[in-house]
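Bumping with the actual sequence this time:
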Amino acid sequence: MTNIKRIAVCLLGLVLVSCGPIRLLPEYDPEIEKGLNKYHVETLQFMAEMERTGAPATGTYNGQPISKYYQDTSASLTNLVVRAEAQGGRTPCSKLGNASDTVLSFIAETSVIDDAIDAIDPNTQISVNQNESDCSSIVLRAVLANQRELEGFHRSEGSLRGPGAQIFRELISDGVRVALITENAKK
């Protein structure tokens, strides 16, 4: 093979490789979006029923122990965190374009909540660290942490009613909204 043919083959290879998609962000994952939407609807329905009935954390929901609801939602959210981490994304929250300010503000608020919860119960583990490299993982872990805090609140207060329930409903909705903004920024 002559030098010209070798150069031509190398150039053709480079052209073909360069035609592939260039991604600056990990790919959008529709399963994360579906999972978040499903979790949000189920949690709002659960909270409405808990407010209506005043059921204690030891009671039942949809014919099952309330603890099963908390186990199922925790498992579903943990799975979403694992999906995000498995994508291998290393996109800091500051690199999400227009979504960056919303996401960073949410993480800062979650950190403040984390500090307040630590003051009340130092055994609580939220583990949200905005210095980690993947924004989707960070935000999904914050949603999971908020769900676990809801469960702890339900146990300690005995029921989900009044201002506490309203605060958690807003906190969970905000977390899901920010997680969806983060995921949709990848589209």
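The tokens above came from a reply further down the thread. Helices lie at 3-18, 30-53, 66-86, 100-120, 135-157, 162-184.
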